[in-house]
Amino acid sequence: MAQPPNIVILVAKADPGTKSKGVSLLIVETGDLPGYSVGRRLKKIGMKRNDTAELAFADMRLAQTALLGMDEGQGFYQLMKQLPWERLILGYIALGASQCALRVTLEYVRERRAFGRRVMDFQNTRFKLAEAATRIELLGAFLDRCLADLEAGRLTPEGAAMAKWWGSQTQCDIADECLQLHGGYGHMSEYLISELYTDARVQKIYGGTNEIMKDVIARSLDID
């Protein structure tokens, strides 16, 4: 079990009636802070190496210095400003996970034999691996272009959305195909591909669901 965090960034709404303008970001140094507690750990189908838990705040008080930024009510805009960077990071996570899935699958099919042949020697296996390798190369090239755009200050919301949704979709597809090439062993937790498979699914959800990403892209195309 992971240790509770020493610092938490809290998204807080001071005035519900002000909508987005009432949101502020607060830096909470937990320690022995009165009113702060960590609740039950949540059980997930994937990303089990990362702890996810309920946090409770009961009459917790913070000093003015806990405010992240110069002014209150800027939290929503601070979060929105970081979205392109966050979505690009998720794209790169997808790239790394896809590369890992391909690597462990190559190791497996080179060693595993079926019907007197290496699994690697079957045409279907070779075609699936060729498709995965090509998709990984294309994803990497696109992400690197997005990173260059980000550093130059010209990464658009739709560009970041493309990186996030296409990266996560590629990750899920490759994890699925690579697990299939492992056969029944792919369903065993002792094989890394099973963890890569279950970890991949949430990538299409957090950071903005892939459906929202497609809507962001569609709006940039002026589609009603």
TrEMBL record:
One of its GO terms (cellular component) is cytoplasm. Its cofactor is FAD. InterPro entries: Acyl-CoA_dehydrogenase (IPR050741), Acyl-CoA_Oxase/DH_mid-dom_sf (IPR046373), AcylCo_DH-like_C (IPR036250), AcylCo_DH/oxidase_C (IPR009075), AcylCoA_DH/oxidase_NM_dom_sf (IPR009100). Gene3D superfamilies: Butyryl-CoA Dehydrogenase, subunit A, domain 2, Butyryl-CoA Dehydrogenase, subunit A, domain 3. GO terms for biological process: fatty acid beta-oxidation using acyl-CoA dehydrogenase. Keywords: FAD, Flavoprotein, Oxidoreductase. SUPFAM superfamilies: Acyl-CoA dehydrogenase C-terminal domain-like (SSF47203), Acyl-CoA dehydrogenase NM domain-like (SSF56645). Residues 73-221 form the Acyl-CoA dehydrogenase/oxidase C-terminal domain. It holds the Pfam family Acyl-CoA_dh_1. One of its GO terms (molecular function) is acyl-CoA dehydrogenase activity. Belongs to the acyl-CoA dehydrogenase family. PANTHER family: LONG-CHAIN SPECIFIC ACYL-COA DEHYDROGENASE, MITOCHONDRIAL, MEDIUM-CHAIN SPECIFIC ACYL-COA DEHYDROGENASE, MITOCHONDRIAL-RELATED. This is Acyl-CoA dehydrogenase, C-terminal domain.
